[in-house]
């Protein structure tokens, strides 16, 4: 006898084949969504996958800016976000109008925007980046030009430190990563003195200062896979531990904070993925004039790959 979940999964797989759809999932998705997906990854990996898939429909299990990015890079594909309200609060911390104001104040500056931004902000930017290639993107820019970096001040601080460049930052931040405190990491280190601390660059600076490695979610998987360590303290969204366990079932993973949950990532459920495939909902659209300008900065992002 099949369980309700097995029946649900069978229905999703059936419809996925009928619709010629591909299911893409971010590393912060619920475990069952990650296990169902055709491809799981970080923002850079997902953007590249979305730009080259030959599926007719992309079901994006992530947040809105990720689905928008897929739509911008693959305008002939139908892109579905299973929950229309799955957004990223950081992406909404700067508007295109605010960015235009910043550009007016610094007319010589090049603009790099983190992919966690709206399509309109991407359209106002010269380059996009993800946490995996932010350093490489900024390093590729001419030394004599000032650089505006939006919206994440914490990723920006990390990039400034790595590149030695003085970036013009915006005070955006991720509310989920902001929940991880320096104290949380110190306590976890006391309890697991041999653990290696891995942190996402969206974390606050004092947390990053305690980390052994600062990595995008995709880089975390590769790092853990290649590391001889037996215990890792993980300073990022809690469900990141699921793909880490898959590559290192022998290792122990300790969340730096049990509070670091992204409520928007958790909005996607198996039931909503089924409803999305059945009703072809919720279709992500980007006005063509915005799309064309945003595509330019996103193309630069997918072309500048980080060193592995
Ligand atoms: P990654 O690109 O590292 O997967 O991060 C995305 C994100 O939203 C982090 O909060
Ligand atoms: Fe946005 Fe933070 Fe959630 Fe990532 S974890 S999607 S940056 S709110």
What does the model show?
The chain has 308 residues and is α/β, with parallel strands linked by helices. It folds into three domains: 4-87 and 265-284, NadA-like (Rossmann fold), CATH 3.40.50; 91-173 and 289-304, 3-Layer(aba) Sandwich (Rossmann fold); 180-255, NadA-like (Rossmann fold), CATH 3.40.50. 43% of the residues lie in helices and 15% in strands. It is built from 14 helices and twelve strands. The strands form three sheets. Strands 2-1-3-4 form a four-stranded parallel sheet, sandwiched between helices. It is globular. 48% of the residues are buried. The model has no long low-confidence stretch (mean pLDDT 96). It binds 1,3-dihydroxyacetonephosphate and iron/sulfur cluster. 1,3-dihydroxyacetonephosphate (13P) is lined by residues 27, 42-43, 116, 130-131, 174, 200, 202, 216-217. Iron/sulfur cluster (SF4) binds next to loops.
Number of strands: 12
Integer count of domains:
3
Helix and strand pattern:
HEHEHEHEHEHEHEHEHEHEHEHEHH
**CATH architecture annotation name of the largest domain:** 3-Layer(aba) Sandwich
For this entry, what is the oligomeric state of its chains?
single chain
Q: Could you name the CATH topology of the largest domain? A: Rossmann fold
Report the CATH C-level class of the largest domain. Answer: Alpha Beta
- How many helical elements? 14
Low-confidence stretches: none
Going by CATH, the homologous superfamily of the largest domain would be NadA-like
User: Which whole number gives the mean pLDDT?
Assistant: 96
Overall body shape: globular
The level of helicity is 40-55%
Strand arrangement within the widest β-sheet reads 2-1-3-4
Largest sheet: 4 strands, parallel
């Amino acid at each position: 006898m099949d369980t309700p979940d097995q029946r649900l999964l069978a229905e999703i797989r059936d419809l996925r084949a009928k619709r010629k759809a591909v299911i893409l999932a971010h590393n912060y998705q619920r475990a069952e969504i990650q296990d169902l997906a055709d491809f799981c990854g970080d923002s850079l990996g997902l953007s590249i996958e979305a730009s080259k898939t030959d599926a007719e429909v992309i079901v994006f299990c992530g947040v809105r800016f990720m689905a928008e990015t897929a739509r911008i890079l693959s305008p002939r594909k139908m892109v579905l976000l299973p929950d229309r309200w799955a957004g990223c609060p950081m992406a909404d911390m700067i508007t295109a109008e605010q960015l235009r104001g910043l550009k007016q104040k610094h007319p010589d500056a090049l603009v790099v925007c983190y992919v966690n931004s709206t399509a309109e902000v991407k359209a106002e930017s010269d380059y996009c980046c993800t946490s995996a290639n932010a350093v490489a993107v900024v390093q590729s820019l001419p030394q004599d030009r000032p650089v505006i970096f939006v919206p994440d001040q914490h990723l920006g601080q990390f990039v400034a430190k790595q590149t030695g460049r003085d970036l013009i930052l915006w005070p955006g931040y991720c509310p989920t990563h902001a929940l991880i405190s320096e104290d949380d990491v110190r306590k976890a280190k006391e309890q697991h003195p041999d653990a290696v601390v891995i942190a996402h660059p969206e974390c606050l600076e004092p947390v990053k200062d305690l980390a052994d490695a600062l990595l995008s979610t995709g880089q975390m998987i590769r790092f853990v896979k290649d590391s001889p360590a037996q215990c890792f303290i993980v300073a990022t969204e809690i469900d990141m531990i699921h793909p880490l366990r898959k590559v290192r079932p022998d290792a122990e993973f300790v969340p730096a904070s049990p509070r670091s949950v992204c409520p928007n990532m958790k909005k996607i459920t198996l039931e909503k993925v089924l409803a999305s495939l059945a009703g072809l909902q919720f279709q992500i659209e980007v006005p063509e004039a915005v799309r064309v300008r945003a595509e330019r900065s996103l193309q630069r992002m997918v072309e500048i790959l980080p060193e592995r």
